[in-house]
Every structure is written in structure tokens, then in C-alpha cells.
């Protein structure tokens, strides 16, 4: 079992940066692939970025590639999402999620994730 708590959301002007963090509790954090997701039209949630349990593999949605960076610190049980050049369409609630099934590559599918945080709101003003 793992609990996830997101932080760092807030109001930011377009093209500005924001850094989200996800703190995990529980054991074996280093064995979980982790991901960040947000709501999308027609979907409950869409993947934003994922990182494998080792941190060696990352994946990004096309809409955020080159602007967002996901990273993790297994010793601190943290996953971060650095968001740069924010756009109004990036606004929404961002959720951190953990996949305990040892895939090792960071699935893009929300259904593959077993644990979810409560989310943190990101608002981007134009």
C-alpha cells in the first residue's frame, strides 16, 4: 500500500513555470512506476508524463514534450513534475499515480495505476 500526496499547484501566468511534487509513503516506492495525469475532454484522465521505477525511462504526452520534465528521488520517495512554458490548456487538476506491477517502463494508461493522490490544481492565466 502506498499513499500519495501532491503539492505545488497554484495560479501561474502563461509561459511561466510551476513545479509539482508528489510525496509517497509506504515501503517499496522504488519498485513503482510513477505517472502524472490530468483530466482531458472526453476522458477521465490523460497521461502527462511517466517515469519507470528506476528513473531510467520517461515518457511524455506530445502536448507537453520539451516543456515538462518528470523526475524522481527514490530515497526521498518523491516524484516531481517541472512544468515550463505553461499554456492555458495545461490547466486542470494534476494527479500523481503509482503502478505496483513492475512494468518498468511507465504505462500511459490510467487503468494500469493502482494508487492515486487527491490531485493538485493548476490554473494558468492568459
Features:
seven-stranded mixed sheet; four-stranded antiparallel sheet; mainly beta; 0% helix; 126 residues; globular
Structural features, described:
With 126 residues, the protein is mostly beta strands. It has strands at 3-7, 10-13, 18-25, 33-40, 43-51, 58-60, 68-73, 78-83, 92-99, 115-116, 120-125. Strands 2, 4, 5, 6, 9, 10 and 11 form a 7-stranded mixed sheet that branches. Strands 1-3-8-7 form a 4-stranded antiparallel sheet, with no helix packed on it. Strand 4 (33-40) and strand 5 form a beta hairpin. The radius of gyration is 13 Å and the shape is globular. The mean pLDDT is 94.
Quaternary structure: single chain
Give the N-to-C terminal Cα separation.
40 Å
User: Could you tell me the number of beta strands?
Assistant: 11
Radius of gyration: 13 Å
Can you give me a brief rundown of this structure?
With 126 residues, the protein is mainly beta. Helix content is 0%, strand content 52%. The chain has strands at 3-7, 10-13, 18-25, 33-40, 43-51, 58-60, 68-73, 78-83, 92-99, 115-116, 120-125.
Amino acid at each position: 500500500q502506498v499513499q500519495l500526496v501532491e503539492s505545488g499547484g497554484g495560479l501561474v501566468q502563461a509561459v511561466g513555470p510551476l513545479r509539482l511534487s508528489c510525496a509517497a509513503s509506504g515501503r517499496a516506492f522504488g519498485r513503482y512506476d510513477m505517472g502524472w495525469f490530468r483530466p482531458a475532454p472526453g476522458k477521465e484522465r490523460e497521461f502527462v508524463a511517466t517515469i519507470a521505477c528506476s528513473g531510467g525511462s520517461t515518457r511524455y504526452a506530445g502536448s507537453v514534450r520539451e516543456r515538462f520534465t518528470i523526475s524522481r528521488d527514490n530515497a526521498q520517495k518523491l516524484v516531481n513534475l517541472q512544468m515550463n512554458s505553461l499554456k492555458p490548456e495545461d490547466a486542470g487538476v494534476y494527479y500523481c499515480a503509482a503502478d505496483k506491477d513492475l512494468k518498468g517502463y511507465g504505462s500511459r494508461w490510467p487503468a494500469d495505476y493502482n494508487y492515486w493522490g487527491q490531485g493538485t490544481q493548476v490554473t494558468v492565466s492568459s
